[in-house]
Automatic annotation (TrEMBL):
Pfam families, A to Z: PPR, PPR_2
GO biological process, one term: RNA modification
Keywords carried by this UniProt record: Repeat
The PPR repeat ranges on this chain: 136-170, 270-304, 372-406, 473-507, 574-608
UniProt-recorded name of the protein: Pentatricopeptide repeat-containing protein, chloroplastic
Domain of life: Eukaryota
PANTHER family reported for this sequence: PENTATRICOPEPTIDE REPEAT-CONTAINING PROTEIN, REPEAT (PPR-LIKE) SUPERFAMILY PROTEIN, PUTATIVE-RELATED
UniProt region (Disordered), positions on chain: 1-27
Entry-linked InterPro entries: PPR_At4g14850-like_plant, PPR_rpt, TPR-like_helical_dom_sf
Amino acid sequence: MTSCNLIPLPSKTNLKHPPNSQDPRSFRTNNVNNLRFSRHIKQQSSSQKYPKHYNLPNLLSVHTKNPHAIYKDIQRFAHQNKLKEALAILDYLDHRGIPVNPTTFASLIAACVRLKSLSSAKIVHTHIRINGLGNNEFLQTKIVNMYTACGCIEDAKKVFDEMPVRSVYPWNALLRGNVVLGGRKYRDVLGTFSDMRVSGVELNVYSFSCLIKSFAGASALFQGLKTHGLLIKNGFLGSDIIRTSLIDMYFKCGKVRLAHRMFEEVEYRDVVMWGAMIAGFAHNRLQREALEYTRSMIKEGLEVNSVILTTILPAIGEVWARKLGQEVHAYVIKTKEYSKQLFIQSALVDMYSKCGDIVSGRKVFYGSKERNAISWTALISGYILNGRLEQALRSVVWMQQEGFKPDLVTVATVLPVCGKLKVLKQGKEIHAYAVKNGFLPNASVATSLMMMYSKCGLLQYSSRVFASMEKRNVISWTAMMDSYIDSGCLEEALAVFRSMQLSKHRADSVAMGRILSVCGKLGLLKLGREVHGQILKKDIASVPFVSAELVKMYGGCGAIDKSRISFDAIAVKGSMTWTAIIEAYGLNGQYGEAISVFKQMISKGFNPNHFTFKVVFSICEQAGFADEGCQFFTMMTRKYKIKASEDHYTSIINLLYHVGRIEEAEKFVLLKQSLA
């Protein structure tokens, strides 16, 4: 097994200023070397003394230029997102006592917003004050926007409160900042919006757009409906920005019909509105509708842009529409501009991988001239989806050999691989790497670590990781339950569920399904009924996984009549729910009825999967139904083209030995050995 030697970059780098030299090439070489580790160098304060002949990054002597030429240099570096170089010139000007104009500061602020660099933002703000422009209304508005874009609402509010006159623009910047923070911050947005109205500020479409976006992020439907009414009252509903925001909000609140109605009321739709519809369908796991609307948009003469491409490619992968994916790939190659964009390349790799065509995914990846951590992670995910776990683990090493550091997503993706392969050494190495790079407070990384340790048989390590988590979510609670269930510690899993119920987190459909399986295994009918009540209250009984676990829970508790009632109440049945009722009858010793239900499933046109056959073979083994078992085995391999697993062979072999058909059993033993 290849060791996953994760190579961290140095946390600190002791770099000195390049030596004075008349050869421009030496300046260029030294500057490039400095840039490689620029993120590890602390920004120097404006009060630091610079040497007389400080080598500035524009490679030319600043003394010979007039101030306006220097401003142009700063603006050029700012437009190129080279803040380190721009701030070096700014420090030089401050040292020389040369003032800087507002336009130059506006360029620097824009660069800070693009890079979301809070440290640089604070340095720029300090220089603005040094230059006596702290009360400049034009810059104050931009500073508020800068701090909100960098996620620092407190500093944005301080600047906002210092403003003597506030137009709608700084108010909107403050609104936007709370939207960026997301979560339940919509209450702060609503408070700011109310203050705007009280202050008599004339609201514009962007004010309402920010408000609606905050409701979308928090799924606050009631507030969204009230705002919709306010928009109609104030005559803002004619704006495409507002209508697109409303469509997005309704989709994110799960109200697909309301979003569709809003869309249908618009006569002339632009590509942004179409994109909102397509993304909304994809968000609600309505992939086919997303693809259908993409076709409709193209028929109306609108071209697919990069945002829509990155929305539909995952949808294509989810529905296994490989042929359609190839058409989209051809379109990407034809446009050329999109074929160079790394996030589209990564989406193509992901699409092919989900369609089971990892070979095409690899071709896209290795055919790309540029790669980054995101594209490497897409390839690693592809290997995992297609069962190439060892190759996925090796790719982490190859990724670093190309000079790319695994990021937080890469770590969370590769940790479950260590669990499945039970390679504890590599798992611990990745754990150490996550700690060293500050990834561990992240819930997804911690959850992956918990699952990895439990799969490797170290349940106490999973428990320690869970206990050390400062911020837990429903997924981490469910992962801890899963760890205990996989280790056979059902009482402990039940205790975790009860603790979660007492916390601020509420169980989702996955957690409900897990606890139902525990109730079934322990025969806890009373608790199972309580959980059933919560499922009905949350309106998640129609989720296939939940309805199947509900049927099995009643079966496991010996209440087969309740199990049948629950099964009959399911409006849309699938293979999962049919398998559940077959298993429920099997658990209660009603083997003949279980086989009868299986035959009924087939006669009604439902296709059994390998899990269904695993349950059926187990029932045949317990009941001694040798003829039926052999018949179903032939049906599975020939009619349904399902490759027999080790579990399938084991059940059939045990069944045949049990009824004394030794010769047939030995034939199956030979077939089982051929799997190895």
